[in-house]
Design brief:
The protein has helices at residues 13-17, 31-42, 63-70, 75-81, 106-123, 136-142, 168-175; strands spanning 3-4, 53-59, 86-93, 127-131, 149-158, 180-181. The chain is α+β, with helices and mostly antiparallel strands and 192 residues long. A four-stranded antiparallel sheet has the order 2-3-5-4, with helices on both faces. Strands 1-6 form a two-stranded antiparallel sheet. It is globular and about 45 Å long.
């Protein structure tokens, strides 16, 4: 499948400047900016306007909660996440609040809300890296997640840092151009 690092058609600067960074500055994030990230999620679309997302967050100065969240991450993510000033766990409510049925689109909606959060971060001079690399059972225990919720991904948030602070292999990946599949690989104007 073909990839390119060139943006081929116009997209907003927020998308152009978004990056899943690993190099974070240790500078704390202002409280108002944290609230702004979550305000962006409020306005994300969701099935039946259910807004099934819930977020648990901790800043570095909230050492106990931050460490509980950090402890859930895979060792490969811990290498660079240790410098992130903000950790977020994203969760989705499994069932509709207005109906007795399961919400089959809750995780999809959570992903959309996480995207809104990520783009708002760019607007604020921050970057976000979403992580699927974590221990799900440990996250459920450490965060006391009720059975009515499903953990989506963890997010590390912060101001961009110096890639030189990363181990060599990660530094090279951090400095490499972002590549994406060409549209012709995933967009069809026909049936399969």
């Amino acid at each position: 499948m073909q990839k390119s690092s060139t943006i081929e058609y116009p997209v907003t600067a927020l998308i152009q400047n978004r990056k899943s960074t690993r190099a974070f500055s240790a500078a704390p994030i202002e409280g108002e900016k944290i609230y702004s990230l979550f305000e962006a999620t409020r306005w994300a679309p969701s099935s039946a306007n259910e807004q099934p997302w819930v977020y648990i967050y901790a800043t570095r100065d909230q050492e106990t909660l931050w460490n509980k969240m950090f402890d859930c991450l895979d060792e490969g993510n811990k290498i660079w996440t240790k410098d992130a000033p903000l950790l977020i766990a994203s969760l989705a409510r499994k069932h509709f609040t207005r109906y007795s049925s399961a919400n089959a689109h809750a995780m999809y909606d959570l992903g959309g809300a996480n995207s809104f959060l990520s783009l708002q971060a760019v607007e604020l001079g921050l970057q976000v890296r979403q992580m699927a690399g974590f221990d799900m059972p440990k996250a459920v225990v450490n965060l006391q997640v009720p059975d009515t919720f499903e953990v989506g991904v963890f997010l590390a948030v912060g101001y961009p840092g110096d890639p030189a602070s990363l181990p060599e292999k990660l530094k090279l990946r951090e400095l490499a151009p972002r590549e994406r599949f060409l549209q012709q690989e995933f967009v069809m104007n026909r049936t399969f």
